[in-house]
Amino acid sequence: MKIGQHIDLGERPVLLAPMEDVTDPAFRLMCKRFGADMVYTEFVSADALIRSVSKTEQKLNISDEERPVAIQIYGRDTETMVEAARIVEQARPDILDLNFGCPVKRVAGKGAGAGMLQHPEKMLEITRAVARAVRIPVTVKTRLGWDADHKIIVDLAERLQDCGIAALTIHGRTRAQMYTGEADWTLIGEVKNNPRMHIPIIGNGDVTTPQRCRECFDRYGVDAVMIGRASFGRPWIFREVKHYLTTGEELPSPGYEWYMDVLRQQVTDSVNLLDERRGILHVRRHLAASPLFKGIPNFRNTRIAMLRAETKEEVFRIFGEIEGMLASL
Length: 329
Description:
The chain is α/β, with parallel strands linked by helices. The chain contains 14 helices and ten strands.
């Protein structure tokens, strides 16, 4: 799959989704090492970027190790989005992605993110203007529509393509669904199989296993699959998926000690990137969500302790206790 003229991701690429407070540089690099074919930054507020908010500007920090990498921006005003896009281009990402899919109230409720699905003409205006303003490939990530009565993605996809985007990512839910219910891939497949579409279509939503990833490629014909929440506490999912896509077989488990070492490295990387206090705060949500701990009896108190831990030493002590639990299963 190629995005633009120069970004070749190969056959059946698997991408790390952009996620706020998740896809920081340390996590992106870890997922890259485990096989993610492309990674995305956390989303960047166009308004904050043009006001030079330092915390927002820090999200533009990317490294050559993680290429190809996309920086994603969101906003609701055309001039602001164009100005932000030009600032982003100076950070030298491989791709600029426009977020028209975030469903959270503080974004969509103000008309940005998935809120744009209520104003498709404005969405198209912004997309057209940004695509003309920068020289790097511009892509879009959006949803099926605002709600079940307004699933507009099939027509919208064609119109976004006409605006000059180089690829389109579709999350298989409406904004009204947020992250509830099952992702519906049928309309994603309909967009991909539309003979008038010629840009790559990337599918997203509920891809949690290697088998499901392969099914999405086979059944819906998408050019790439994007994995989001399934990577929480499980960055090795990309390793598992890539192996299955290549061989048709599940990757043998390397044992719980290997998984725990990966999580230790994730904690260490997060602390090194930020500092101990902020690094631990950032990584705790990954640890609490890790499927590695499912099935451990009476784990609730340990999970709570992990969510309350404030130091690397404390987290690693809890890890030692967990290893004892896993060894006894």
